[in-house]
Amino acid sequence: xxxxxxxxxxxxxxxxxxxAVGKTSLIDKYITDSFNExxxxxxxxxxxxxxxxxxxxxxxxxxxxxxxxGQAKYELTRKxxxxxxxxxxxxxxxxxxxTFENITSKWLEDFIKFGKxxxxxxxxxNKLDLKDSIKVSSEEGKLLSQxxxxxxxxxxxxxxxxxxxxxxxKLVLHILKKSGVKFVLD
Length: 186
What we know:
This protein has helices spanning 23-32, 75-78, 97-114, 138-147, 164-178; strands spanning 7-16, 45-54, 59-68, 87-93, 120-126, 152-155. By secondary structure, the protein is an alpha/beta fold. Strands 2-3-1-4-5-6 form a six-stranded mixed sheet, with helices on both faces. The longest helix has 18 residues, at 97-114.
């Protein structure tokens, strides 16, 4: 291609899901490789940035990660935060079935209605490390992913970092591909 000019992108990514599914923990693991055992609910929204380099497409990317509170009391204000999102991670807790059901009845519906109807999103089944408490099977996650037209289904453990970096990177790559950037996804 001969184009050596480095491209720069800024992408707003929303992390959506019920309270205590691990949205903040996934961000903490991705940004600082840390995990806090004590649950502290997000108040409204917490915005964190991370700069990444994707050598395979010669690009610098600034990620604006919007950790959006899951509590019902933030429902009205939360919808404003969806505007301008390039994509989202829809996260449920594999040990709590209700968080899985709320992906379609609450989170996806709001994202499409108030955010980006044609946005790119990945379904995340978090807390893979709690194997003895799992209530949502991998098969159910895959089926829901297909049903909601998610670009991927990934199971993660924020505690141990399993598939965390991959989830964010795949979301970014899918967004860029949909934007017309030419490359091959693995």
